[in-house]
Amino acid sequence: MSDNATSLSASKSTISRRQFTAATAAGALAASLPLRSARAATPLKLGVLLPRSGHLALIGQACQRGAEIGLPMLRDMGYSVELMNADTESNPDVGRTQAEKLIREGANMLMGCFDSATTLAVAGVAEQKGVPFVVNIASEPKLTEQGFKYVFRNFPSAGMLGKGGLLLYKDIFAATGVTPKTAVLLHINDSFGMAMLGGINALMPKLDMPFTIVETIAYDPKARDLSIEVSKAKAAKADLVMTVTRLNDAILLVREMVKQQVETMGIISPGAPGMYDKQFFKALGKYAEYCTTNVPWFDPTQDMAKTLEKTFEKAFPEESCDLNVGFTFEAVLIAADAHKRAGSNDPQALSAEAKPVFPMPPFKGRT
Amino acid sequence: MSLLHDRRAQLLLGLLALMALVPLAAGDYLLSILITVLIQAYLGMSWNVMMGFAGQFSLGHALYVGLGAYAGGALFVHYGTPPWIGAIAGMAVSVLAGTVIGTLGFRFKVMGVYFALLTIAFAEFTRVLFDHWGWVGASSGLFLPPAANASADNLWLLRGSATMFYYVALGMTVAAFWFSRALLMRRIGYYWQAIREDQDAADALGIDVFRTKMIAVLISAAMTSLGGVFLAFFNNNLYPESIFSMHRSIELILGTIIGGIGTLFGPILGAVVLTALGEGLTILGAHIGIDGVKQIAYGICLMLILILKPGGLWPWLRSRLGLAGGTR
After folding, report:
1. Distance CA A30, CA A215 (A)
2. Are A190 and B241 inside 8 Å of each other by CB?
3. What is this structure's pTM?
4. Measured between alpha carbons, how far is B243 from B252 in angstroms, rounded to an integer?
5. In order of start, what are the domains of chain A with their CATH numbers?
6. Is the ipTM of this complex over 0.90?
7. In chain B, where are the structural domains located?
8. B132 neighbourhood in chain A, CB within 8 Å
9. Which residue from A100, B62, B144, B247 has the highest number of Cβ atoms inside 10 Å of its Cβ?
């Protein structure tokens, strides 16, 4: 018999109140350990809300691929996640009811929703129900300025996107040895475009950019004809064209610039969708090569990013592993990691741990 | 015949009692769907006053939804004005907009599809205006602050649980139903129907066509804007591109068209059918696992309903239930 056993045995005969309390506490702790471990072994039920149909369907489906492609990787890393998928139909009202449905069906956490309006609607539900909600992509600054307790965002806000994008301009100028003196800014006038405009206007003087914006032209992202906007941009005779776009208008814009033979040093977006999308390259062919966009991207030198890209290319050879895929994968990873560290599916515990503690398959600016 | 012996009244009271008890058994998901049904029915009834009763085709009713929503929302955000006070401002602005549209349309004999185009034009340029109006957040949107305590219901400030919103929506729908019924049974209701059936004949009989049609537009605008206030406080965020959109205008009238234009129950039945169809197809689409299949099936179902029951579902159901004869 070991010494420990002897002492334990001895203590039985002369147990004091303090020892009893300590033993009870130790017993309770020991009893709780298997329970805690059992709870941690219960997979996280993650409600995934994405616009897989409607006008944002292409992007929503790309995000969905990002959520699903990483599951085997996460399993190998010791995470335990089950996805509960729901289509928001690019409609905030549908997003809200689907969020309620997922919670009713047992979702421990929510993730989504790409567009800010739906994300805000779902945030309201998450807040009311006390269910943690990880935002995969949505840049509206107010999302994290509303005082929500259960909403976590990994994606940069519009201001951060603008700053990161503008700083990369200097790198481009240094690499090419060409520095423009003037620029014209063409931007969409929806919530994202206006937030970006505000960020760019505020940051231009602070970042001491080497060029000035001589003309700012706003347009409707649903526009079918941008000939007047491009004519105005051409008339400004600026060295550089800056763009804040969505996908369809980005294609329209570049086509019109080719048609009107706009001569410029370059077309560079400070951070917006459109010019990195596969559809953009498919639609414009060689003309897509003359456009540059500065967006958050995964660091291709990281092991996790390499594995993700490899897995993605194998599963979807026709699609591109872009930021929609990457940030959605990352959001799932954040949720899974919160669950692992919390050791339970309790919303409070998950909320306490749902912080992006990673320098993750680290997303950083990429041109 | 007393109210209790009237089969139609019994049916209605039974339905109302059932609806009042729903929150006792339903979860928030079901409540959320029922709120959608009720608000769609309410907005459908609002549009029905103008189109169903008076025969004036509006395809831009999102204008009044948006004006009400922004008036209620912006006054609350900037001055803390309770939504019920904001609703008065919203209704006033909507009535003003309706006056301009009605005057332009009716004075210059803009009728039928051309009048519909006029209403679309107003909704669209109001959207563009709000897209650039900084005080209401422009295209970046207007966000209503969330309630400090989401579980505490505050009816005066419209901050609270799904159950509270459900009862508010139910109250608004019941009130709109009785109001529509009362209008139809009064002289103005008969004037509207006369104009709807044959404007020239109504004019020849001495009805002041301009004034009568204007009343329909103004009542419809005011009712619709109240629905907008509800939506603003329920959704907590407003974007011009969605609140004033053509899509919303169509969504708003679809239930009434499916249910039966010009009937009292039509907008309610249409809202129930459309929402049930939408939810059913969402579940089906999730099982099938093909994105967008819901929208295709939804479109096919709508076409089938319109081909098989061009007058709407309620007139057909009414005869099946043996409720014909005055039950609209």
Report:
1. 69
2. yes
3. 0.79
4. 11
5. 43-156+300-366 (3.40.50.2300), 159-296 (3.40.50.2300)
6. no
7. 28-245
8. 189
9. B62
